[in-house]
Amino acid sequence: MSTNSDGYSDNMKEYIVYCDGTCMKVLATTCAGAASAAGFHYASSIVLPVDDWLVPDTKLLTANGQVDVSWPKSTEVDLELVAKSMGGICRWTGQTKRHYSVAEHSLLVAQLVPKDLVISALLHDVGEWLLNDITPPIKRAYVTNPRVEARIATAVGDFLGVELDIGNPYIKEADKMLAVAEAVDLVGIDLDTAQTLLKGKYQPVKYLNLDRAEAAHQWLQKVRHYVDQT
Asked: Could you give the CA distance from residue 160 to residue 230 in angstroms, rounded to a whole number?
């Protein structure tokens, strides 16, 4: 490999690397090398040669304007729009026997945790307002997703003026228990497979059987109620 008078390889060129809201220009011979030089994993980065560069646009068009999905601000949060999305988005990639919304799931999680964790339980999946329902395998495959979800939750928490504890063990346990029940009751996965793959024990659940609009309404009312009490 030849080098020029500056000591760089003749095959090197400028790349733009974008990851987690950070944009950098680096010299490298490949896209993967550029991501590494910028200190990021290639799989979780957007890398383009400067000649092909287009500024990554992570803004999502909503009914009330735009929200930057990667770095949302509390000023961009519209709670009624959040509720509508939570009621409209179906869990389990739409495989359920009826429309089973993220909002209904969140209401059920909130019934299973201590009172001081209710608002965190109601908002534990609020990142899906912008990202849609993301199944665990996708979250594991794309390492940026958990961080983006956390930033969305923080923006909503800041908007409401509450501090969230979404990673609390009580919430995680309630979420897992519901996931096993949903898999069996609503998706039709056999009991042994659900318990083995989801690493939880089946327990009967009294579902709320809410349509989109009612799920959104009840979720919104619960959130407002608990925020008013804090």
From this structure: 10
